[in-house]
Amino acid sequence: MKLKRLSNREERILLLLKRFDFLTRDQLNRYFRLGTIRNANRVLGYLSDYVTSIREGYQTIYYLNKNGRAHVGCEKIRKRGGHVHHTVMRNEFWLFYGCPSDWKSEIKVSDGKATVIVDAMFMKTLQHHFLEVDNTQPMKENRIKIARYKALVENGLIAQKLGHFPTVVWLTTTELRRKQLQEACKALPSVKVYTVADIK
Fold this sequence. Notes:
This protein is α/β, with parallel strands linked by helices. The protein has nine helices and eight strands. The strands form two sheets. A five-stranded mixed β-sheet has the order 4-5-6-7-8, sandwiched between helices. Strands 1-3-2 form a three-stranded antiparallel β-sheet.
């Protein structure tokens, strides 16, 4: 099968999907300024040889298929599942925070004694930030993760290495969960908690 030739913008769409795994039509539209919904659908429809889409509620979510992965040299195979919405929330925050260029997803942070897998790490106004996305996991799991952050703070090596302990940023779904996270994070030096409604 002969694949369609791609423009520079279409290549960049595939590269962004390589970097961020799953992006909604609205996220791609905002980043690439595709214009009307009709035009965004037309642009993304043209890429159907390279991307797969899934419908979730009112949104369409795109990810690279086999052709797309081969085109941009991507070895990671994405599959639909419960993690998709978590990834979309994380990517929404990347857009909300002005698309930090040093953004890294799923980073292991360790000082040799305590370890945390951080949903994302980035810089903003010369400060390091750790992002945690709280979508459907039990609050008990969040508290275990917060305890690991506390251990990193107490051990002092991360703050020594970076010059400060990063701000821990949470993105959650409801006001109740915001309050629970704020309470659980009181011992951390710098915390911000957003709900999805705050960043839309």
